[in-house]
Design a protein that fits this description.
This protein is mostly helical and 149 residues long. It is built from five helices and two strands; from the N terminus they run E-H-H-H-E-H-H. It has one domain.
């Protein structure tokens, strides 16, 4: 299944506006707010950019990080590169690529949520659960925090 884009995306970082820190209780579901073909390409480009940034943050070296991120997502390197570097030129995106990127994005968000929880557990053990910093981190992680310190 392919979706044809009528017009190129104009945002500087496609789909990244939807990747706010507040999105911690549930991972984004596929299908953009406007279900146009261009929106599917833009959303997939946002996921690819996010996956690349997390891979670069872990290992550095953008070119090799792009290859690793594409491989982890199960997407051909050439299509991944196009989504990251020139999404405005893409007129369509295959459903298999779209959903592979969505699943990889979802897995990365869950991995980062687990890392945040681990760091929060360490902070609670060191500073105590009533520490202002621990409570702020817990709120960032989506936990309900009651009472003031």
């Amino acid at each position: 299944m392919y979706l044809d884009a009528a017009s190129p995306s104009s945002s500087a970082e496609p789909g990244m506006a939807d990747h706010a820190v507040q999105r911690t209780t549930s991972v984004a579901t596929p299908v953009a707010k406007t279900a146009t073909p261009a929106a599917f390409v833009e959303e997939a480009a946002g996921w690819a950019g996010f996956l690349l940034k997390t891979e670069v943050a872990r290992h550095g070296d953008t070119d090799q990080a792009m290859r690793r991120a594409a491989k982890k997502a199960g997407v051909p390197h050439s299509r991944f590169w196009s989504l990251v570097r020139r999404p405005q030129t893409l007129k369509d995106i295959g459903a298999s690529i779209y959903f592979s990127l969505h699943h990889a994005y979802q897995a990365e968000c869950e991995r980062q949520q687990r890392l945040l929880q681990h760091e929060l557990d360490i902070a609670r053990a060191k500073a105590g659960p009533r520490s202002a910093l621990v409570r702020a981190a817990a709120r960032l992680g989506g936990e309900e925090v009651g009472g003031a310190a």
